[in-house]
Amino acid sequence: MFYYIIFSLTVFYIQINYILSDDINCILTDEHRLAVLHAHNKYREKLACGEVTDSSNKTLPGGILYRFIYNKTMEKLSQETANKCQMKHSNDTLYGENLYASSYSMNITDALIAAVDMWWAEKDACPIAANNLNATDAVWQGCGHWIPMAQSQSIQISCGVSNTCGSQDWCATAYNCKQTTLVSCNYFNPSYNGDNQIYTAGNKCTKNEDCSVYKNSVCEPSGLCRSPNKWQLQ
């Protein structure tokens, strides 16, 4: 009989300097990057438009959220973490970080999408509305992976995958796993100041002036704001 098990971990914005390794070979193609980027932004569009529920099964309010753009330079960090094949967060990072692991070897695109879907689904067991959209201890405990995906002012992501991790301690005994997969995604919010507010309740953007966090931002028809590639705080 075949078994598989999936784990996730999250960490968010530890303010320690990090030097990227130059010898990390990133394996993701642009097709992979677009797939994981679209998966994230699809969910952010729904949140901005007020189409997301939490554990209360009540619809969360919409709000101003920025569209993620992909950061290939940051991907080195994500891939380095994935290559370690451990459900253990990188210690020296300025970025939010989500980890996902499965007890079998997965196609890269499938692994990326499965990770995003699993992290986002945590909202269904999370008291987000009851905590006024704040990242309280209860919300972190219930949906710690959902928070960096949903934070309104985050603008960049990157991911790394290793699907040849071999057997790992967390699944070798109970599940006799022979080959495992690890996904690591990082999130960058240049405006983060320690505020617990995930996003501010309101409406999606309808005009460029609504997108006021980063200079020269524009409001897209999707209802998400887009920052310029060379962002600058207002």
TrEMBL record:
<dbReference type="Pfam" id="PF00188">
    <property type="entry name" value="CAP"/>
</dbReference>
<dbReference type="InterPro" id="IPR014044">
    <property type="entry name" value="CAP_dom"/>
</dbReference>
<feature type="domain" description="SCP">
    <location>
        <begin position="31"/>
        <end position="195"/>
    </location>
</feature>
<protein>
    <submittedName>
        <fullName>SCP domain-containing protein</fullName>
    </submittedName>
</protein>
<dbReference type="InterPro" id="IPR001283">
    <property type="entry name" value="CRISP-related"/>
</dbReference>
<dbReference type="InterPro" id="IPR035940">
    <property type="entry name" value="CAP_sf"/>
</dbReference>
